[in-house]
Amino acid sequence: MVEVLVPTMISYAPPELAAEMVPLLLGGREQWCQGFSEPGSGSDLASLTTRAVPRDGGWVVTGQKVWTSLAQYSQRCVLLTRTAPGHGGITAFFVDMDSPGITVRPLRTMHGVDEFAEVFFDEVAVPGDRMLGRPGDGWRLAMDLLPYERSTCFWHRIAHLYTRLDRLVAETEDPDDAALGEAYLGLHTARCRSHLTQRRLGEGGRLGPETSVDKVLLATAEQRLFDTARDLLPGVIELAESPWRAEFLYSRAATIYGGTAEIQRNIIARRLLDLGRD
Ligand SMILES: Cc1cc2nc3c(=O)[nH]c(=O)nc-3n(C[C@H](O)[C@H](O)[C@H](O)COP(=O)(O)OP(=O)(O)OC[C@H]3O[C@@H](n4cnc5c(N)ncnc54)[C@H](O)[C@@H]3O)c2cc1C
User: Fold this and answer.
1) How many CB atoms sit inside 10 A of residue 207's CB?
2) Where does the Acyl-CoA dehydrogenase/oxidase C-terminal domain lie (predicted)?
3) Is the CB of 69 under 6 A from ligand 1?
4) Which of 4, 123, 131, 196 has the lowest CB atom count within 10 Å?
5) What is the pLDDT of residues 18-31, one digit of tens each?
């Protein structure tokens, strides 16, 4: 959330709000969440229907979000709402999660963790100065935020996956060098790409659709690694309540969160390779 939401707050929040809030997240004193997806709007995010209507100098929000990571532990939410039709009718707010009218219901993942939640908004009053950007800026905010979700936050994920590769090598009694080599290559490729992205960002570069390449490489490497564990450690995924099993199951989410693998490939085809819509 730090890598994903802090750049958004700095770019879009009123400066006083960013100055007050960002240190709370950076310092670990608060957790925040990202309320984008809805039951009927995931890949087609622009179809979202959670609505915000103006009232008494502020806004009143009604609707539902889903798959909201860490919502049950969060003090604030970067929330996308609809204020008018179309892409230009999406407006973002920074909402206090203890506002009256918000109900959070944790959802258990198949790897047994309450990672995300359904979040219901029933006539939730949001002050006018909690808007991020201007009315209708929400789509632009989302397009600026998603490249971070698809790249910069992977640096430490890749470091974590390297520790799992080391563990796999240590636990394998009958090493298959070719399979381990492929798993290593996938991780190394993702790390090289991630390094390039971090460097570009550090030099003041702007992140955009090219981060879909980072996302595809990370998801492919993560799933290959745990597929290799399944093949080299017989039964450890299917038959045992092991850490390998939990991580194997979580790795399946890598081609879904932050935009699915199909959506990333569409972006690469259309926006990077200019292959047209078909
Ligand atoms: C672990 C995890 C954490 C998440 N955390 C958050 C969060 O914090 N906040 C948040 O807002 N959301 C979160 N999400 C939700 C995530 O962003 C959505 O699941 C994702 O965008 C896909 O949307 P969907 O689930 O509605 O699937 P759908 O959009 O219904 O897609 C279903 C299938 O159809 C395919 N598909 C859809 N459209 C196309 C197309 N145009 N071309 C080709 N194939 C297509 C998809 O690739 C997919 O295989 C999280 C998801 C996961 C798994």
Assistant:
1) 19
2) 136-273
3) yes
4) 123
5) 999 999 999 999 99
